[in-house]
Amino acid sequence: METKMFCYQCQETAGNKGCTINGVCGKTNVTSNLQDLLVFVTKALAEVLRTARNEGIKVSKEINHLISENLFITITNANFDDEAIKDSIEETFKIKKEMIAKLKDSSSLSEAAKYDVPRKDYEEAAKTVGFLAIENEDIRSLKALITFGLKGLAAYLHHANMLLAENEDIDIFLQSALADTLHDKTVDELIALTLETGKYGVDTMALLDGANTKAYGNPEITEVDLGVRGNPAILISGHDLKDLEMLLEQTEGTGVDVYTHSEMLPAHYYPAFKKYSHFAGNYGTAWWNQKEDFENFNGPVLLTTNCLVPPKESYKDRVYTTGAVGFTGCKHIPGKIGEKKDFSPIIEHAKKCASPKEIETGKIVGGFAHHQVLALADKVVDAVKSGAVKKFVVMAGCDGRQKSRSYYTEFAEQLPDDTIILTAGCAKYRYNKLNLGNIGGIPRVLDAGQCNDSYSLAVIALKLKEVFNLDDINKLPIIYNIAWYEQKAAIVLLALLYLGVKNIHLGPTLPAFLSPNVAKVLIENFGIGGISSVDEDMKMFFGDDVKKKLK
């Protein structure tokens, strides 16, 4: 069978080997190849920028932002608009030529850095620059792991940049690491770069955490409504809090309510957003259910980041995109970092729509980011010391559509009553509406927020290590059973590895981009493992005498 594309960056890639005809995510082979070309020319620009810096040439913030946004565009379920991707490729070629012209000596640049092709040939050229161009399986695997980690890092960096938070050291590393993947490197060099990527992943998530809390306050324990009101409304999905802020400002007093969807749920935990009386609640569940959720919502939907599923024709006219997101035929709201976006088209659209259809009622509790949990530290420590809490189980990460992900619901249901789940990301939708109760007033599901808020879980673990006077983070009573889907999860994993966390279990499958030899290195050095059945994993994590709950 002809290979029209090759993509294996997400957990749902075909046969856990790679998509070769069209993407399981919904992107066509043309879109996939164009994204490969965008990544390639972004790496080429990164090499030019590294050379420019070595010559003392200043690189502007705008060019740094271009690098991170280009990578964000290529994350799974972000941009399906071929012409928009071509625009980004064209802009990247343009900037690269301008920067090469500034160099005193361009002789050290690789052929990749000098690569150029006219727009009319993008689709044909794009077929030749994907990962299969790297012959050695292990080198390909490590370069893929680094690249996908850098994509996740770039996404979080972009969120921070949207809030005008900058850290040029991160940009310099990002660009240097991208450039390194164009060159011949040994396995040992690439493993070292992988861990360094994790280090800068921690730095980037800390930058974003600081930007979020500076702008909107520290997340606090919050009950979020799951029902609906009778007003016309806009549903906002994705991750970008700055977009939400602008939307709430512009909808205030218009009679249009705003609801969150999927990864935007944690926005309700921030104090700054609570002043908006029309910030109504959360609607629906994880990203992969959006075809049903968006259909039922009736009003327009704003996608601010990745997690877009190709929309059905029945509601496609109600889907708006912004930032790195795009889909051919959907209306795109422009606006660069630092600019005020004009959301009036989506607001006027909402006024003409029926109010959302009610699909559930009740409330859900969240807001357990590191500041809030550390405020409860005494209660948590006492619960551990008394034996009321025996284990914490980190079940952060991503949700997905595969039936095998029901494992995480069953796992949560069967956890011993003396365990507490620490979560972040949309994986929580598999169990955050279960009635798991509390331990001495501490809810058994502590939701820290979005996937980038996995940083909070690391901060909590490091604080507990300090409180209990331990010399190794792995001596804490914490189990890591993490679901993953896309590249933001890849940088979270690398960040945890950099922090020294071992024995992390990933599911529903290990990444397809890990070659057998690379997987072996991760298993032997970091204890990385997969998952099996709930019963077997309960025994593995808790021993043969674990008490099962009655169903």
What does this protein look like?
This protein is an alpha/beta fold and 551 residues long. The chain is built from 18 helices and 15 strands. The strands form 4 sheets. A 6-stranded parallel sheet has the order 4-3-2-5-6-7. Strand 11 and strand 12 form a beta hairpin. The longest helix is centred in the middle third of the chain and has 30 residues.
* Number of beta strands: 15
In the predicted model, the low-confidence regions spanning at least 5 consecutive residues are none
Which strand order spans the largest sheet, edge to edge or round the barrel? Answer: 4-3-2-5-6-7
Cα-based radius of gyration, to the nearest Å: 23 Å
* Distance linking N and C termini: 47 Å
Question: Average pLDDT, to the nearest integer?
Answer: 96
Proportion of strand residues:
5-15%
Tell me the overall shape. globular
SSE class: alpha/beta
- Helical content band: 40-55%
**Largest pleated sheet:** 6 strands, parallel
Number of helices: 18
Please describe the structure with a list of short key phrases separated by commas or semicolons.
single chain, alpha/beta, 5-stranded parallel beta sheet
Quick description:
With 551 residues, the chain is of the alpha/beta class. The chain is built from 18 helices and 15 strands.
List the helices and strands and how they pair.
Blueprint: H1 29-54, H2 61-73, H3 82-102, H4 111-114, H5 122-125, H6 137-162, H7 168-180, H8 187-216, E1 222-225, E2 233-237, H9 241-251, E3 257-260, E4 279-282, H10 290-297, E5 301-303, E6 319-322, E7 331-333, H11 344-351, E8 363-366, H12 370-375, H13 377-386, E9 391-394, H14 406-414, E10 419-423, E11 438-439, E12 442-443, E13 445-447, H15 454-467, E14 478-483, H16 487-498, E15 504-507, H17 516-526, H18 534-542
Parallel strand pairs: 2-3, 2-5, 3-4, 5-6, 6-7, 9-10, 9-14, 10-13, 14-15
Antiparallel strand pairs: 1-8, 11-12
Helix pairs in contact: 1-2, 1-3, 1-7, 2-3, 2-6, 2-7, 6-7, 6-8, 6-16, 7-8, 8-16
